[in-house]
């Protein structure tokens, strides 16, 4: 049928996600875990997620394009329909189909159907002048709660480069269970990165890629793969993964041949570790519990991937700057320090502790290590452990850790923001 809506389910679901993220401060990952897209088939689900993510990345530009055509800001749901359509129209979407579907979405809404005329009129204007305006607008800025501490920690040009990386989104990286060259070859066109991860530019459906069913690899950002590589677990070593779920690092440790104990507070997330281990044919002892109360060991090595602001993952979680407001970071910083102190009590004398966070904030990285060194005489940082293929000198920090940012490796597609340091007791 001519002019029929092509993706009504995906667009409706994407707007629903935007309503919850922007209206209620919910995180996309929580909404997905709660089944927000379960009614859709896998292709529509992926499309809804992509539409919501694209809209969140381009939100500032979409609002500026729309502002020219709106006398006042309409109700959030209408605004989100307009935002989603604006991003599509300004990034090559078919004007006729996009406008029609936006109007259909509003027309089908009990209380808001009277707004369909406005939606139609505004989007016709956006279709005509939006695409040219889009590219002239600045790359969307981070909100103040995050931009201010980042500019203070780095500098404005660096933060602008990070914002460009957030706007560009992230490629998909894989970690091979055994042979990275073989995985790169099997996945067709996968590039082997200097640090050993495999980078896919256009992965398509992940579970349909060669090697998924046999567990030859798992999805893990190149930056997130480094803490376990630096910890360098040896066959037979007793290694504790203290905040393990969903298990990317647990699998690296198990693949290295270590006797791994994986612990996480969340039972639901721990199930994902077990599923991941089952798919990859790797083994670990899985425990659900509070890291602060764990009393096992002593261990040869511990990996502490502590809960944090997750501000290093914005390329892949563009909802984070909008859903969060910076509240709770002080509590996370205190929790990270308490976890680090407790982890040290579980180590064998001379054992290794990898502390890492997927945060861009030095308070959750460099400062944690400086403060831990001050609290624990005899504790040292093993900067020598960072001498691995692909790790660049300029990523190293004064106290002996590694600071990774989304704007590094810009030509290769960036990497997640991360901090890591290897401590020796
Ligand atoms: C950054 S994620 C870990 C990612 C994981 N290491 C990986 O590579 O897949 C942090 C984890 O800490 C867990 N967590 C939060 N508080 C905890 C606590 N008190 N004890 C144990 N785990 C906790 C969360 O459930 C979450 O899974």
From TrEMBL:
Instruction: Enumerate the Gene Ontology biological process terms.
Output: regulation of DNA-templated transcription; RNA methylation
- Protein name as annotated: Methyltransferase domain-containing protein
Task: List positions binding S-adenosyl-L-methionine.
Answer: 243-249, 264, 305
Keywords tagged on the record:
Methyltransferase, RNA-binding, S-adenosyl-L-methionine, Transferase
Q: Name one GO molecular function term.
A: RNA methyltransferase activity
Family listed:
Belongs to the class I-like SAM-binding methyltransferase superfamily. RsmB/NOP family.
Metal-binding recorded as keyword: no
Pfam families noted in UniProt: Methyltr_RsmB-F, NusB
InterPro entries assigned: MeTrfase_RsmB-F_NOP2_cat, MeTrfase_RsmB-F_NOP2_dom, NusB-like_sf, NusB_RsmB_TIM44, RCMT, SAM-dependent_MTases_sf
Q: Which domain of life is it from?
A: Bacteria
State the SUPFAM superfamilies in the record: NusB-like, S-adenosyl-L-methionine-dependent methyltransferases
**Domain SAM-dependent MTase RsmB/NOP-type: residue ranges:** 150-425
Q: Which PROSITE patterns match?
A: SAM_MT_RSMB_NOP (PS51686)
Active site, renumbered: 358
Organism this protein belongs to: Roseovarius spongiae
């Amino acid at each position: 049928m001519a002019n029929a809506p092509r993706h009504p389910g995906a667009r409706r679901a994407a707007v629903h996600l935007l309503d919850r993220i922007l209206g209620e401060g919910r995180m996309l990952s929580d909404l997905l875990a709660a089944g927000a897209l379960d009614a859709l088939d896998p292709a529509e689900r992926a499309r809804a997620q992509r539409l919501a993510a694209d809209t969140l990345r381009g939100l500032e530009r979409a609002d500026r394009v729309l502002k020219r055509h709106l006398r006042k800001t309409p109700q959030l749901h209408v605004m989100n329909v307009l935002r989603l359509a604006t991003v599509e129209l300004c990034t090559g979407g078919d004007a006729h189909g996009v406008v029609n579907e936006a109007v259909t979405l509003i027309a089908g809404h009990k209380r808001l159907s009277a707004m369909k005329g406005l939606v139609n009129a505004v989007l016709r204007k956006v279709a005509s002048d939006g695409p040219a305006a889009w590219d002239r607008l600045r790359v969307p800025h981070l909100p103040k709660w995050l931009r201010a501490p980042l500019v203070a920690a780095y500098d404005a040009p660096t933060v602008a480069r990070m914002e460009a990386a957030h706007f560009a989104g992230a490629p998909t990286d894989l970690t091979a269970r055994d042979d990275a060259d073989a995985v790169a070859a099997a996945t067709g066109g996968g590039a082997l990165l200097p640090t050993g991860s495999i980078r896919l530019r256009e992965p398509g459906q992940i579970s349909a890629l060669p090697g998924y069913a046999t567990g030859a690899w798992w999805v893990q950002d190149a930056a997130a793969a480094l803490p376990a590589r630096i910890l360098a677990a040896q066959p037979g070593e007793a290694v504790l993964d203290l905040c393990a779920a969903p298990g990317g690092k647990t699998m690296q440790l198990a693949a290295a041949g270590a006797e791994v104990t994986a612990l996480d507070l969340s039972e639901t997330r721990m199930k994902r570790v077990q599923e991941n281990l089952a798919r990859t044919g790797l083994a670990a002892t899985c425990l659900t519990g509070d890291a602060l109360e764990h009393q096992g060991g002593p261990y040869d090595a511990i990996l502490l991937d502590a809960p944090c602001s997750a501000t290093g993952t914005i390329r892949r979680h563009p909802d984070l700057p909008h859903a969060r407001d910076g509240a709770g970071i002080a509590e996370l910083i205190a929790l990270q320090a308490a976890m680090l102190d407790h982890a040290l009590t579980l180590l064998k004398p001379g054992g290794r502790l990898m502390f890492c966070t997927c945060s861009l904030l030095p308070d959750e990285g460099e400062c944690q290590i400086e403060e831990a060194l001050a609290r624990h005489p005899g504790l040292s940082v093993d900067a020598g452990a960072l001498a691995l293929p692909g790790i660049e000198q300029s990523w190293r920090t004064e106290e002996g850790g590694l600071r990774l940012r989304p704007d590094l490796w810009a030509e290769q597609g960036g990497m997640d923001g991360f901090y890591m340091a290897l401590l020796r007791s």
